[in-house]
Amino acid sequence: MARGKKTDKITTLQTTEIVLCFMLAAGLLTLPRVAVETAKTPDVWMSVILAGAATFLFGWIIVKLSSRFPESTFYQYVQRITGKAIGKVLGILFVIYFICIAAYEIRAVEEVTSFFLLEGTPVWAISAPFMWISLYLCLGGIGTLGKICQVIFPITAAIFLLICLLSLNIFELNNLRPVLSEGVMPVIKALKTTTLTLTGTECLLFILCRMEKPEKATKAVGLAIGISTIFYTATLILCIGAFSVEGVMTRTWPFLDLARSFEVEYLLLERFESLLLSIWIMQIFATFSIAFYCASLGVSQILNSSYSKALFILLPFIYVLSQIPKNLNELFSFGTMIGNAAFVLFALLPLPLLLISHWRGVRS
């Protein structure tokens, strides 16, 4: 047992990359359109920076709460804070949330892959290998997830940087001018949308207890949010600069269209959308796996059952849920519902729990 416990620990760097991979998924492909539709102004990139600051505050509260129980996950210590009955209900809500995240990501992979890469391929043939490989990965525990995120994120960052640099050829600075022409209200209006896209720090509620150095959790979450904010801000600026506000609003996947908008003759690959999709499928795979892990961990700890059994039981539920949205519009509405639930569960709930735990003197 001691050997297993030792191997299921994650370093500070792995923690940072797990949070990063959880934040950078399908949202990066759609945020420019969703944010611009809300604000209808090129100043929406400011909303991402403000959302990053707000997300760090929420993440800091989550770290403070979990740090009071360094040997327990949220599913375990919430029952000590609120009582068993309320704690189990809250735990079940969190499990449902992570199941919905996993279902959303698997459906996003199906939609993007069948449209851009594997046209005519049955959707089950796309999602089945994705889900079974994730199941095999999750059987290895959080340590294995940390290692796979360590591999995926640097590749993602390199491809993302390359596409950003090459897209400067079609970038028009005038599309971002004039700055704040309609005041600050559009920026504030888009703040909710951008904050929901940056959710991801919630996984710290379940992985902080697995950190080798939990005292460095604040540093890990700060670094993850900072890098994510840079990614999302760059995506918005480049998409608006290339297509203008009106052009972004007409595109379903603006960042993919950006990668398709230029050709480079002197490189091995002239077109980059297939490369971007391949890398981003890996990124969504990481997000799906983290959500799948958190949901299965919750089922096993709430019901005192086997973690591996929970993985096998939840997998068909996730697939069935992913097939409920009938089209892309319903899928995006489903994503908005998940974002709203995330705001309630992870922005509003941790602070009262932290205050109650202080008031009742509950800690490990």
In short:
The chain is mostly helical. The chain has helices at residues 2-7, 12-23, 27-39, 44-67, 74-82, 84-116, 123-139, 142-167, 185-189, 191-197, 204-207, 217-249, 254-259, 273-302, 307-322, 328-348, 350-360.
Task: Give the tags.
single chain, 364 residues, mainly alpha, Amino acid/polyamine transporter I, disordered N terminus, membrane, Spore_GerAB, GerAB/ArcD/ProY family transporter, germination
CATH class: Mainly Alpha
CATH topology: Amino acid/polyamine transporter I
Structural domains: how many: 1
> What is the CA-CA span between the terminal residues?
21 Å
Mass-distribution shape: globular
Provide a descriptive summary of the structure in words.
There is one protein chain. By secondary structure, the protein is mainly α. It has a single domain (10-346), classed as Amino acid/polyamine transporter I. Helix content is 75%, strand content 0%. The protein has 17 helices and no strands. The chain has helices spanning 2-7, 12-23, 27-39, 44-67, 74-82, 84-116, 123-139, 142-167, 185-189, 191-197, 204-207, 217-249, 254-259, 273-302, 307-322, 328-348, 350-360. Helix 3 (27-39) packs across helix 12. The radius of gyration is 20 Å and the shape is globular. The two termini are 21 Å apart. Residues 1-7 have low confidence and may be disordered.
Write the layout of secondary structure elements.
Elements lengths: L1 H6 L4 H12 L3 H13 L4 H24 L6 H9 L1 H33 L6 H17 L2 H26 L17 H5 L1 H7 L6 H4 L9 H33 L4 H6 L13 H30 L4 H16 L5 H21 L1 H11 L4
Helix pairs in contact: 2-8, 2-12, 2-14, 3-12, 4-10, 4-12, 4-17, 5-6, 6-7, 6-14, 6-15, 6-16, 7-14, 7-15, 8-14, 10-16, 14-15
Protein name: GerAB/ArcD/ProY family transporter
Keywords: Germination, Membrane, Transmembrane, Transmembrane helix, Transport
GO cellular component, one term: membrane
